[in-house]
């Protein structure tokens, strides 16, 4: 089975935030669980959107829908470590693009994970994929 290989240039990351690994994020193997990491990626993305002045859904009912997720784990993380989440946007196309993430241990810089979310813009009123809004393309091109 092929392994996922992710690599992103440093300049793509334009936002960062720190989050602690909570005791409830620990799995049966006594380290950060993949489900918890995915939730933390979503939180980092939401903070990124707020910092960029963007909303999850606009007044016309158009918002972002995640289409896929790839995660490459690089090391374990444990309670109560602080993780640094760096976020960027790449590969814009007609309908969406990718959010990319680099996760490291804040104290040491040790890599924990790389990840990407594919996304499209979606009209919740029309129930269909719509073109990437100009304001989004201009912000990240």
Task: Kindly describe this structure.
With 141 residues, the protein is of the alpha+beta class. Helix content is 18%, strand content 38%. The chain has helices at residues 34-51, 134-140, and strands at 15-20, 62-73, 82-90, 96-105, 111-123, 128-130. Strands 1, 2, 3, 4, 5 and 6 form a 6-stranded antiparallel sheet that branches. β4 (96-105) and β5 (111-123) form a beta hairpin.
Which structural class is indicated by helix and strand composition? alpha+beta
What is the percentage of strand-forming residues? 35-45%
Determine the mean pLDDT.
95
- Tally of helical runs: 2
Characterize the biggest β-sheet: 6 strands, antiparallel
Regions with little confidence, pLDDT below 50 for 5+ residues: none
Give the overall form.
elongated
Order of helices and strands: EHEEEEEH
**First and last CA, distance:** 35 Å
Q: Count of DSSP E strands?
A: 6
| Helicity level | 10-25%
Structural Rg: 16 Å
Layout of helices and strands, plus pairs?
Elements: E1 15-20, H1 34-51, E2 62-73, E3 82-90, E4 96-105, E5 111-123, E6 128-130, H2 134-140
Antiparallel strand pairs: 1-3, 2-5, 3-4, 4-5, 5-6
């Amino acid at each position: 089975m092929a392994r996922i290989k992710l690599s992103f240039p440093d300049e793509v990351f334009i936002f960062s935030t720190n989050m602690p690994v909570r005791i409830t994020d620990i799995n049966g193997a006594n380290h950060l669980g993949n489900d918890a990491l995915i939730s933390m990626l979503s939180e980092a993305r939401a903070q990124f959107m707020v910092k960029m002045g963007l909303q999850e859904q606009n007044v016309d009912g158009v918002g972002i829908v995640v289409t896929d997720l790839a995660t490459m784990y690089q090391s374990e993380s444990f309670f109560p470590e602080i993780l640094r989440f760096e976020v960027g946007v790449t590969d814009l196309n007609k309908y969406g693009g990718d959010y990319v993430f680099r996760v490291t241990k804040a104290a040491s810089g040790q890599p924990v994970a790389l990840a990407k979310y594919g996304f499209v813009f979606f009209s919740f009123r029309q129930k269909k994929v719509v073109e990437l809004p100009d304001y989004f393309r201009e912000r990240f091109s």
